Amino acid sequence: MTDDGRIKNDPYLLEVDGLDVTYHSQGRALAALQDVTITARPGEIIGIVGESGCGKSTLSAALLGLLPPNGEVTGGRALYQGRDLFTLGPEERRRLRGTEISMVFQDPLTSLNPTLTIGSQMLDVLRAHSPARADRAEARRRIVEMLERVGIPDPAARLRSYPHEFSGGQRQRIMIAMALLLEPALLIADEVTSALDVTLEAQILQLLCDLRDERGTTILFITHDLGVVAQICDRVVVMYAGRTVEEAEVTELFDRPLHPYTEALLASVPSRRRRGSELPTIPGRVPSLAELPEGCAFANRCAHAEPCCGEQRPRYVEVTGQRVRCHLYDPESGHANLRQPSAATTGRKEQP
Amino acid sequence: MTNDHDRPDAIVSVRGLRTHYVDRQWWFQRLRGRQPAAVRAVDGVDLDIRRGEVVCLVGESGSGKTTLGRAILRLAPATHGQIFFEGRDITGLRGAEFRRLRPKMQMIFQDPHGSLSPRLRVSDLLTEPYRIHDVPADQRYSVAELLEMVELSATLAEKYPHELSGGQARRIGIARALSLHPDFLVADEPTAGLDVSAAAKILSLMRSLRASHGLTYLVITHNLRIVDYLADRLAVMYLGRVAEIGPAEQVLDAPAHPYTRALLDSVSEPDPHRRQGRRRLLLPGEIPSPKNPPSGCSFHPRCRFAEAVCREVPPLAEVDSRHLASCHLSSKIRAAGTPV
């Protein structure tokens, strides 16, 4: 793990501030992301959690400039090393992808070209982005080195293998190798372990942690698995219906979830403690983008909802080092049962 | 073997079950003077499931857990061995006799959308089993009753599968399985692909249905958190064989097989406090091909405890009451400390 003291004083590598993304569909404007705020310092692993449809993948597409034609950034900014990604021209964006910001997708089989060997696909990555390094022997050496680093046995010989000749875990390793080939400062990992067995998942998570420690790569780790988040992330951002609802250090989030949605999400993880009893579940379902309410998007499923929750959009307020978008914690919201969280009352254990 | 064999209360018993898939080109191999290779998906399993029990079957993909579950329901061939249902040998049962048995043992399929016909409405999907089995009207549940059983709104009856969410489609699959008053259900990865809260709802539903319908479950999963919540007994499979079996809490707390230990260590712990200071033993490599399993103990190439004795195939032997493991060094593994 990275030393907290150092990390806190570093400038942000990525600063997403009030990001809005709108999809245009059948004459309607659907707010896929609203007021999304995320910051990442160099070398941090930031978990982005939420259920399907919460906008996790739209967020990564927006950051990479890969939104579908009907998607549009309608507000906010995303500063990468101080430069706003959304004001860059297409050529600058393209240059940034791969060399500075890179992505690993969930399904390695559909992201790799089945008709090309692994070696030639990786060579393409190097060629597309760095003509200066086009020297074939040098490129090959770098590819072999990277494949070896991610744990592909006998990499030199396997350059001529096709994607289908690798197992699922190996393909995911190859995707990671390809994403790191140009040594990006920011890696977006979208559900990279969801399709893997626990044993392979543990290996891949270990690999990502090691790579972060070696190279200081910042990782945005998108997942719906809270266990995985606890395993590797330094900080966590919880998303719900296209909005960031809570942000906290990982131990804080698990000890002291503030947002009722985070609480419910943590409680619904099956475990022995819950054996023989019903698992707490969240009533209802995530509202579709077409039916988002005026106020808090979680209000219709929330046990603490009051009239103000349905009417006004909650602000993203800071509470003892965490940030939460909920009227319960905003003294100005007019919620009747304001919460005053303090570390002492929640039985939080001290960190060594 | 003294597990729970030949117990009168076993609803399902499996003896020496093997499912070997022979290469389609076996004759070609023969012509070339080679022994045709078989994929040994299930390679000699003994298992008893008692009435009312929840047995979980875990292992990595390729361990044979799904094939075993399907073979018990006769959805996959049994090339050797026997399957007993309520004391009766059903291994070779065919035709009308087999059809009479089918309603009692049902499967909840892994891919809910793939197992529902896209051209039928929910109401037709739910009554389809009745048409197939020609169930008299007085023994049928109504569509509304079935939907209520799985806690779905009656308004879904007129919908098509593509209009359902993953969790809803999964419930329709459960309702279809329940429609024929089964005694025994095999659930293949019942929460795969579902969000945390949808998965929690399915697990709670399975738990309450077990009580209300007197069900016995075989749950196939790779998620050990589900095992911790749901299972009475746990069987761990590796390369077509049972590596370890026993009461779930006992196996999880004091695993006697290094493979079980490694699986437990691989689980990402959602509680950061429990995680800290825990030594994780990560399993190197991947599961070998069941076409050509390693000699001796099939786990030895990945096992950090392996010794010379592991060249011999270990028997499935008792390590504690009702707790069996297939490892020469099981006492050493248990002494090496428990995970978490």
From TrEMBL, chain A:
SMART domains: AAA. GO terms for cellular component: plasma membrane. It is found in: Cell membrane. One of its GO terms (molecular function) is ATP hydrolysis activity. Pfam families: ABC_tran, oligo_HPY. It is a peripheral membrane protein. Residues 332-352 are annotated as: Disordered. InterPro entries: AAA+_ATPase (IPR003593), ABC_Ni/Peptide_Import (IPR050388), ABC_transporter-like_ATP-bd (IPR003439), ABC_transporter-like_CS (IPR017871), Oligopep_ABC_C (IPR013563), P-loop_NTPase (IPR027417). Belongs to the ABC transporter superfamily. This is Peptide ABC transporter ATP-binding protein. It comes from Micromonospora sicca.
Automatic annotation (TrEMBL), chain B:
Transmembrane segments: none annotated. One of its GO terms (biological process) is transmembrane transport. InterPro entries: AAA+_ATPase, ABC_transp_ATP-bind, ABC_transporter-like_ATP-bd, ABC_transporter-like_CS, Oligopep_ABC_C, P-loop_NTPase. Residues 17-264 form the ABC transporter domain. One of its GO terms (molecular function) is ATP binding. Pfam families: ABC_tran (PF00005), oligo_HPY (PF08352). Keywords: ATP-binding, Nucleotide-binding, Transport. PANTHER family: D,D-DIPEPTIDE TRANSPORT ATP-BINDING PROTEIN DDPF-RELATED (PTHR43776:SF7), TRANSPORT ATP-BINDING PROTEIN (PTHR43776). Belongs to the ABC transporter superfamily. This is Peptide ABC transporter substrate-binding protein.
